[in-house]
Amino acid sequence: MLRLRHISRTAASIAVAAVVVVIAIIAFVALRPGDEPPVAQRAPAAAPQQTATQPAPARAPARIVIKNGAPVGGVRELTVPQGGAIRFRVESPEPVTVHLHGYDIEQPAAAGAPVVFNVEATITGVFEVELEELGVQIAKVSVEP
Ligand SMILES: [Cu+2]
């Protein structure tokens, strides 16, 4: 038993030594001067990610999620000053047509293809946003003078 344990310990030591050698070879290959171009490529790649997160502060459109043919959380109320932008996004697991009354704009949405409305608020009043086929109101848009 003792001897077996000793042998397996030796085998383990050899295995560890082998792993160390492999790591040393990998480290040597990776750290050779030839690796400099990939490092240089990596630096610019990180920069676009930083700029990609910067536009986020621009207010995201209101997000309306449709479930079982109705808006989750009820009819969304949006208030926009005249001259501003009516912005909302509708996500639906089923194909639907989203209709912004008053401005009379219809756009389709489907699973994996949400629709984003970004409409200049030129007309004042209170307007219904409807799932056209279902006749279901999903939002109430107030454009105030
Ligand atoms: Cu409608």
Automatic annotation (TrEMBL):
The chain crosses the membrane at residues 12-31. InterPro entries: Cupredoxin. Residues 39-60 are annotated as: Disordered. Keywords: Membrane, Transmembrane, Transmembrane helix. This is Unannotated protein. It comes from freshwater metagenome.
